[in-house]
Amino acid sequence: MPPRLLKALKIAVGCCAAVLLARLLGLQNSTSAGVITLLSILDTRRDTFRLVGRRFLSFFLALAAALIAFPSLHYGVLAFGVFLFCYTFVCYSLELYEGLSSNVVLTAHFWTAGSLSPSLICNELLLLLIGSVVAILINSYMQDISGLVRRDQAFIDRAMRTVLLSISDRLEGQTPRPHMDFAELRAYLKEARARARVHENNRLRGETRYYTEYLTLRRSQCALLENMLGAADSMTVLPPQAADAARLLDRVALSFHRLDNAGALLEELEEDRVLFRASALPVTRDEFESRALLYQTVRDLTYLLRAKKQFADQLTEEQLRDLWPDAPQDCTAKD
User: Fold this and answer.
1) 313: pLDDT confidence band, cut at 50, 70 and 90?
2) For the chain, how long is the longest CA-to-CA vector?
3) Are the beta carbons of 320 and 214 closer than 8 angstroms?
4) Which stretches within 172-238 are classed as H helix?
């Protein structure tokens, strides 16, 4: 079911259920329970729980302001104005914006009734409780998007792996294979991160932050890949060391989805850098500039692998197994 249609259905069912329940309990202003349910049905479970908690805190602040303003000013228009000033000032000071409108409506019932009797206070508190509980129950059902999150992960891995192989093609003097445009890749990363955050906030049990952390890793690696590709494109001649760098890029690309190999690749990369430094100095200006660009490419590859290793070291064995399946993913093979 499309998300918008599902949310509209939740709102309709939840509001009607809240109003009916309030009427069955004989509460006054029963439609307010439906309004509270409407305002409490958010996009994720955690957001709904967080909103309900803050709304209850805001309600008791509104009640305190009403107890101060209404009786002392005899429930006149001035009393309502003083109440609004005090209550909104406190809410904005404490950043409790979420419950402001709904609690003003509930508290206005005291003002129009001209009473702050215990029975009326209980009535408003029950309206808030019914609307909030119904919203939590309705929002307990959320579509599982874990498949979409994993699909995003696989797609991003393939796209970035193809960029690595394209850089390798350039360093070997071959026609580079096509790859995803970096602007499109960054936009996809942004969309994938939004989906991962929704998935994270819908999981009340278990730790799911590694999906958003994974996308943070890939976003930083994307910037490094863009720098590497730009440096490879700028080489006017290929230094002798370019072939060794290309072979290492191939190995990184073909195991890009794995996180247990960054240490070994870093050691191999350091060995290649030692050989680069021991090589004969370039003779022409073009050779010097191309050698510098190759060194920059290898340096950025080092940063990419270090970021990968740092991320992997922070994961538990369970997270590593769930996030990085052992089965290799498809990639574009070199001709």
Assistant:
1) confident
2) 94
3) no
4) 182-202, 209-233
Give the DSSP H/E element, type plus range, for residue 286.
helix 285-313
Task: State yes or no: pLDDT of 332 exceeds 50.
Answer: no
pLDDT in tens, 237-289: 888 888 888 988 888 888 777 666 677 788 877 777 777 776 776 667 888 88
Burial of 4 (0-12, 13-18, 19+ CB in 10 A): exposed
Confidence of residue 328 (pLDDT cuts 50, 70, 90): very low
Helix, strand, coil % (nearest 5) of the chain?
A: 75, 0, 25
Per residue, the 3-state secondary structure of 225-281, as one string, reads: HHHHHHHHHCCCCCCCCHHHHHHHHHHHHHCCCCCCCHHHHHHHHHHHHHHHHHCCC
Cα–Cα dist 9/13, whole Å: 6
Both structure tokens of 15: 């509001």
Give pLDDT, residue 204: 58
Token pair, residue 119, equals: 């029975």
| Residue 325 DSSP code | -
